[in-house]
């Protein structure tokens, strides 16, 4: 019988900021920033690009607090981001949002993908059993004001 030992840190994705205050956005304008914040792979394995696992709306002018206007994405370098390399967080906003103050907590959840020998998003695995849950979720709070 053979065993495999996986050695990594609990938080391999380190954002340069844990909270982002975006500039005021005019209602109806498209907002896309492919370099909103930077992040570094402080772990021992490559990291694949990642979409959030969930968004928690903290503040919104809508009565339905499930309506999220943020779309985030952890970009990688070429195919992945290797240990000690950095890349960027991309951010896009729903251009049809009404004016008001918005804030959400964006949560990225990831696992060790033993088959690919890399860090992968939970929602990106073909089979959830392929992932080994050894990492803490990454949370980022984002705020913006949509102005008329």
Overall geometric form: elongated
Quaternary structure of the protein: single chain
User: Helix- and strand-based class?
Assistant: mainly beta
Distance between the termini: 66 Å
Total of DSSP H or I helical runs spanning 4+ residues: 0
**What is the tally of beta strands?**
12
Overview of this protein structure:
- The protein is mostly beta strands and 148 residues long.
- Helix content is 0%, strand content 45%.
- It has no helices and twelve strands.
- It has strands at 13-15, 19-21, 25-26, 31-41, 54-59, 70-74, 86-93, 100-108, 110-113, 118-121, 131-132, 138-147.
- Strands 2, 3, 5, 8 and 12 form a five-stranded mixed β-sheet that branches. Strands 1-4-7-6 form a four-stranded antiparallel β-sheet, with no helix packed on it. It has a three-stranded antiparallel β-sheet with strand order 10-9-11, with no helix packed on it.
- β9 (110-113) and β10 form a beta hairpin.
- It starts with 12 loop residues before the first strand and ends with a strand.
- The model has no long low-confidence stretch (mean pLDDT 90).
Write a brief caption for the model.
The chain has 148 residues and is mainly beta.
Layout of SSEs?
Elements: E1 13-15, E2 19-21, E3 25-26, E4 31-41, E5 54-59, E6 70-74, E7 86-93, E8 100-108, E9 110-113, E10 118-121, E11 131-132, E12 138-147
Parallel strand pairs: 2-12, 3-12
Antiparallel strand pairs: 1-4, 4-7, 5-8, 6-7, 8-12, 9-10, 9-11
